[in-house]
Every structure is written in C-alpha cells, then in structure tokens.
Amino acid sequence: MQTAATYTFFANPHVKHLPGPFLRPSPHYGALVHLPSFRNKTSISIAMAASPSPPPLQELTITRPDDWHLHLREGDVLAAVLPHSAMHFGRAIVMPNLKPPVTTTARALEYREEILRALPPGSNFVPLMTLYLTDNTSPEEIKLAKKSGVVFAVKLYPAGATTNSQDGVTDIFGKCLPVLEEMARQEMPLLVHGEVTDQHVDTFDREKVFIEKILAPLVQRLPQLKIVMEHITTMDAVNFVESCKEGHVAATVTPQHLLLNRNALFQGGLQPHNYCLPVLKRETHRQAIVSAVTSGSKQYFLGTDSAPHDKRRKECSCGCAGIYSAPVALSLYAKVFEQAGALDKLEAFTSFNGPDFYGLPRNTSKIVLRKSAWKVPDTYSYSSGEIVPMFTGNTLEWLPSDQLEE
Ligand SMILES: NC(=O)N[C@@H](CC(=O)O)C(=O)O
Ligand SMILES: [Zn+2]
Ligand SMILES: [Zn+2]
C-alpha cells in the first residue's frame, strides 16, 4: 500500500529567474509536476505517493552474545557484578589485572574456580581466562596455558598505562619476543591495552602513538601472532585494524566509546563515572568507530570493558579509571546500531565475529531484545559499598531477556 506524503520546496526570493512552471523530473521525485503558480510563491506543498517506511522494529532475537573484554574482580565485587554478565552473555574473556595479577596458569585456574563458585545457580556462563604478560613471562608458561584448555589469551598492559598495570611490560621488544613467538606458534592471541605511557605524550594521543611505535612494528615482526586491540577509541585505530589482515588483527569496542565523546567528561561539571582509559576522544573519532563497527566488518566485536570500582573510589579527589557497563551494555550496543540504521549487523558484532576470531564455536542459544523502556538503577549495593553503572538513573530502550522457547 502507498501512503501520501507532503513535500515542501522553498523558492529563493533572491533568485530572479525561477525555473519556470515545471519542476524537472529527477530520480528523487520520479514525476514531472505541473506548477503553474510557482512564480508567485515562496513555498509550495505537493502531495505525492511515497513508499511506506517499515514500522520500527520492536523485538530482535539474536544468538546469545559473548563479552570479549570483561573485568570481574574478586570477592564481594565479583559476587555483585558476575550475575549482570552471566544473565545475558554466554562467555567472557576475563581480564587478569587483579592485585596481584594473574600471571600463571595455576593462578588462572584458581581464579576460574572462584568465578564458577560465584555464578548464580543454573547459569551456563563460561569464563575464558587470560594471563597477564610481564617482562618475566616464560614461553613455558604459554605452553602450560594452552594445554590447560581454559586460558584463551594473554594480556599486554604497558607498565603504568591503566588500573593495576604496574606489573606490566616495560619493554616489549627487549623482553617479550620469545614469549610472543611461542604465542604465535600456539595460536594464543595477544590482547593489547594500546596506549604508550610516556608522560610527554598527550593523553589524547597515546593510542595513536602506541600504534606507530609498538603495534605496527609488532605486526611487521610477528605477522602470524593474533592480536586484539582492546577498547579502541580513535580513527587511527580503525585505520590500523583495517590495514591488517582479517583473522590476524581485530578490535573490541566498548559502549562508551561508541556513544560518548570527551564532552561527556565535563558536561555540567566533572563526571567521574564517564572516566575510563583510554579516555573518551573527540566526536570525529567516535563517528569513525561507529561507522567501522556498523559496516559489517568481521574485524570488530563486542568487548564491554565493564570495569567496576567502588563509588567512593570513583567519586574522590583522585578517581580511578573504569566504567561499569555490564548491566546496560547490550541495550547500549543495540541503541548504537539502531541509530546507525544497522540493526541487521548487530548480531555479527555481538555474537559471531568474536568466536570466529578466537576459533571457538558460536553460541547456540538465543536472547531477545525488546524495545521497552527500562530505568537503569542509580547504584548497585554490595556488602562493602556501592557501584554506579554507566548511564546511572537514565531510561534506556532495548531490554534484553532470555528467549524462553529455545
Ligand atoms: N578501562 C579502564 O578504565 N579500566 C580498567 C583497565 C583497562 O581496561 O584499561 C580497570 O581494570 O578498571
Ligand atoms: Zn585497558
Ligand atoms: Zn579493561
């Protein structure tokens, strides 16, 4: 069925020679329209047939997503945050930046047990463990990690780059090449917090400089090593990822870097709950990342970087970096893809590209995203404090729920 639409054209009164009594046929109008009194008007309305636009989607069923970059912490924080991820995600790559960090397979196995014990009864959530790379990690440790069957990647934190990175790598080319070569042999991906730590480099340029100084030379040197550039924030990162081979270099993208630019740090006063590392960048970078992930490229996948910190450690004179997004992430990713008119590409980003890159099977169960408004809680309380989620107190759409008839 066709519906009538009204188009209004404005004639410019300063133009002396108006185009005459006819509008020319054009691909947009498709018809010759007779307008005898056009000369005497500054605006006209024409009723014409237009194709109906399809009704907006109210419900979306997708393969259960995985989170390829997640901080679960330990103890009471773990117990408080894990249910939010386990509710809708099938698996998650669990970051090793604990205090002290998870540097050995033996410790990764213990941490995995702690996570499994904290899961809500009946949950099928699978934690995929990682090791924290140091200057002293041995190639032997990589072999053990691979053999364990529960460690899926190794994380590079340049020393001093972010939360709990003080034990990270000080000189990747000088100290880590034998380990990285072993990882390439074992097909163990390297996950990268891609920022230089040089205090002379502007905070907003640290990702770009890291790509030039470390990442590009590393890819040249070890083209077989699988690398995930975590939480990308710039157009430079997009260009770099796309200059590399699909299946070898990929990137995770957070909800905050897709939805917020650096103004969100200062809107109406300092906003500590929008502070994370790498720090939010300017709007042109945000737009480049949105175009990249909604393009359908297989090189991008979901990684929330959900990073809970107690409210008192965020709202203080030296607040720490990290945004707690686990409870809101799926709603936010759906919002990004909807705004870009690319909801048809959402499932590949949330549920296919990650497992395909890691060489793991895709999930078989489904979840449903319903377009119904829901209010984000102001805080989540736990035994020793409170955690403030991203978009605290806001109303979001796209409420995720399990598909009942599986
Ligand atoms: N993203 C953050 O701002 N913080 C993360 C560390 C990290 O992923 O860099 C954390 O562990 O709190
Ligand atoms: Zn990081
Ligand atoms: Zn992180």
How is this structure best summarized?
With about 400 residues, the chain is of the alpha/beta class.
What ligands are attached or bound here? N-carbamoyl-L-aspartate, zinc ion
How many helical stretches?
Answer: 12
What is the topology, as strand order, of the major beta sheet?
Answer: 6-7-8-9-10-11-12-13
| Strand segment count | 19
Computed CA radius of gyration, to the nearest angstrom: 25 Å
Q: Name the helicity range.
A: 25-40%
Low-confidence regions: 1-48
- For the termini, the CA-CA separation is 35 Å
Q: What structural category arises from helix and sheet content? A: alpha/beta
Q: What CATH architecture would you give?
A: Alpha-Beta Barrel
CATH fold description: TIM Barrel
For this structure, what is the CATH class? Alpha Beta
Kindly report the name of the CATH homologous superfamily.
Metal-dependent hydrolases
Strand percentage: 15-25%
Task: Look at the structure and give the mean pLDDT.
Answer: 90
Quaternary status of these chains?
A: single chain
Question: What best-fitting shape do the alpha-carbon axes yield?
Answer: globular
Number of discrete domains? 1
What characterizes the major β-sheet?
Answer: 8 strands, parallel
